Amino acid sequence: MSTFSSPRTILSRNDSRPLYSSRPHQGLLHHTDQGATYTSVAYQQRLAEHGIAASMSRKGNCYDNAVAESFFSTLKNELVHERDYHTREDARAEIFEFIEVFYNRQRLHQTLGYVSPEQFETQNPVPLPGCLRNRG
Length: 136
Description:
mainly alpha; two-stranded parallel sheet
């Protein structure tokens, strides 16, 4: 079954790996716009069941989603627009590789002082209760 579906489908599937594969700790924040899918009772209940806090952009404030929109622009321009995927599994595998290997570990980000997100998190640990990453 495909992992590239609507957010409603991803949250309703039993094997919703993209959302839960990292076993998020309590306090995870899920930020979206105020679209009908994200404001639905079912969607909000599913987030709550997994201890995920919902965060929504303010009406008419286009800057609230700037980081996410920048990421998807990068993904499309640096990977997707150059490819012709024959199956959803091909797309899923290559996009996973792009995000987990290249984007998070190798790609330098201007807003992070020209280091990768992984390097930035290592250099700037944020103490979060119960977060394994912060244990010595």
